[in-house]
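Task: sequence design from structure.
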């Protein structure tokens, strides 16, 4: 862990001697292959709620450039491993989105039961009960404070100083409790830290972010929405989804291109086979014609070769030996 942090801070060659140019290659085990392809998911989610842990491998832009310019680019399986990794992360966040949506479907109707308070603010049943309970406790504490202060005054008049001080301390304790209740009531009327608690307290409808799966208030203030979209975790999941779409699109284009090239190759092969059949038939007819007229062997070879080359220069190389039978002997034409 410490070595990886030092590598990130000072570079992987921090312990190399002066003038040492022995640089690691991109196919070495301690080089992050995900970073070579596009980015390292561990680095994307560092210090977020979805933290994947620290990546101890080398992240060197120079090695990435070297890999992309090499003849082995996209031939070592790095892209497939990277795509499988980010696809698993995308599947996990999609399951999280579905889970949170089911959770909202259960809890949201309960939070929607609300009324309007005297000051015009919307408050839920839980809020009203909480306010009533706090008000009752405040009244009880105020009564205890008054009782303690009256007791302290009477004890002081009787000359019981220590007992009077104890009554005052008890009254101060009740005052602190009442102040804490007032603070709790004030906090309950202000935005909470947790978005779900905030929505439950204020009875505002919530929605689930379709990128990172976090809870968001519907029609929230624009600043809070912008902060969410600019968050590290949201941007990481958005980049993963965009990268998956881009790589899938590139794969589909390659597949279509290979399919078209395969069809073209098949048609070309069919065309060459048809042309070769035509050439064979033509050559056979020429041989028959030459035998009928008793053409000399040298003359037949010259005419036969010229005929093949005029029909298709590539076809002549497909012939190895062609037997020519006469009445007295057998001659072989060596072609190509």
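Answer:
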């Amino acid at each position: 862990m410490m070595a990886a942090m030092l590598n990130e801070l000072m570079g992987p060659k921090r312990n190399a001697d002066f003038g040492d140019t022995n640089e690691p290659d991109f196919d070495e085990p301690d080089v992050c292959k995900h970073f070579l392809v596009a980015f390292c998911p561990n680095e994307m989610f560092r210090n977020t709620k979805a933290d994947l842990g620290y990546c101890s491998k080398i992240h060197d832009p120079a090695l990435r450039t070297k890999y992309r310019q090499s003849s082995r680019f996209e031939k070592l399986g790095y892209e497939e491993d990277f795509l499988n990794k980010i696809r698993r992360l995308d599947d996990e966040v999609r399951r999280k989105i579905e889970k949170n949506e089911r959770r909202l479907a259960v809890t949201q109707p309960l939070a929607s039961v609300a009324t309007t308070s005297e000051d015009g603010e919307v408050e839920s049943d839980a809020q009203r009960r909480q306010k009533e309970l706090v008000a009752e406790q405040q009244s009880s504490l105020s009564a205890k404070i008054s009782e303690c202060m009256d007791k302290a005054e009477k004890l002081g008049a009787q000359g019981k100083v220590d007992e009077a001080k104890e009554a005052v301390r008890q009254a101060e304790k009740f005052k602190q409790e009442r102040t804490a209740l007032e603070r709790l009531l004030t906090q309950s009327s202000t935005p909470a830290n947790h978005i779900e608690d905030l929505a439950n307290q204020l009875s505002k409808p919530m929605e689930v972010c379709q990128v990172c799966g976090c809870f968001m208030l519907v029609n929230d203030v624009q600043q809070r929405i912008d902060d969410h979209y600019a968050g590290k975790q949201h941007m990481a999941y958005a980049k993963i989804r965009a990268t998956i779409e881009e790589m899938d699109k590139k794969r589909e284009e390659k597949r279509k291109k290979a399919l078209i090239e395969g069809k073209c190759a098949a048609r070309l092969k069919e065309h060459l086979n048809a042309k070769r059949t035509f050439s064979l038939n033509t050559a056979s007819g020429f041989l028959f014609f030459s035998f009928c007229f008793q053409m000399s062997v040298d003359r037949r070879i010259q005419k036969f070769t010229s005929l093949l080359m005029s029909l298709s220069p590539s076809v002549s190389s497909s012939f190895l030996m062609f037997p020519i039978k006469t009445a007295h002997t057998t001659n072989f034409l060596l072609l190509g």
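The CA atoms of residues 29 and 158 lie 87 Å apart.
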